[in-house]
Design brief:
The chain is α+β, with helices and mostly antiparallel strands and 203 residues long. The protein is built from four helices and seven strands; from the N terminus they run αβαββββββαα.
């Protein structure tokens, strides 16, 4: 059973990689994608949806780092009061440490999401609603197809990371949307995909 499951997972990864290679080859050749019909999500006039995937979603930001400080009042014997104040101090230290850890920057909101790629934006159904990330607002773009992930930075929003078997295809489409065919031909991070396309053409 475990071996069968591993075989299915490996086959799905291979299909996803081949799909990303085919997408790169298609777009790099200047061919257009057929429009995709989507329901629920409302597109803008003139906007076209092209691809839809499931992916892992997360955002990069810090917490507020606040915690509740407790001051205890203990009446009774000296050992009882000493123990009470000691436990209160220990509790405050634990809450302060937890708050400091929460304040650190890290990837948060981890969840599985539906991603729609359109002519204008990346749209994610996260936390029960559709969130739009416009290509025009992207300030930095880090595709990592070998790690099945892509990270976007924005001027007015916290970074977005999409990961999983669809990561290579999402990275490929985003490179095309942001940089055109030149991005597909020249972006260093896409070289593993380009190499796979070249190797397939030689067979």
């Amino acid at each position: 059973m475990l071996a069968e499951r591993d075989a299915r997972a490996a086959a799905e990864v291979e299909r996803s990689w081949h799909g990303a290679c085919e997408l790169l080859s298609h777009l790099a050749a200047g061919r257009q994608l057929p429009p995709l019909t989507v329901w629920g999500l409302v597109l803008h006039p003139g906007e076209q949806a092209y691809l839809s995937f499931a992916a892992g979603y997360s955002r990069y930001y810090s917490g507020d780092g606040t915690y509740t400080h407790v001051d205890g009042l203990f009446l009774g014997s000296l050992p009882f009061m000493a123990a009470g104040y000691a436990f209160t101090a220990m509790g405050n230290n634990a809450r302060r440490s937890a708050a400091a850890a929460e304040a650190a920057y890290r990837w948060r909101e981890h969840q599985r999401t539906q991603v729609v790629l359109t002519s204008e934006r990346v749209v994610c159904n996260a936390n029960g609603r559709w969130l739009s990330f416009y290509f025009s607002g992207v300030t930095a773009f880090y595709p990592e197809p070998m790690n099945w992930s892509v990270v976007f930075e924005f001027g007015d929003a916290v970074p977005l990371r999409l990961v999983g078997e669809s990561g290579a295809a999402i990275a490929t489409y985003a490179a095309w949307a942001l940089h055109g065919r030149d991005g597909l031909h020249e972006h260093p991070a896409l070289e593993p995909l380009r190499a796979a396309v070249r190797n397939a053409a030689r067979r």
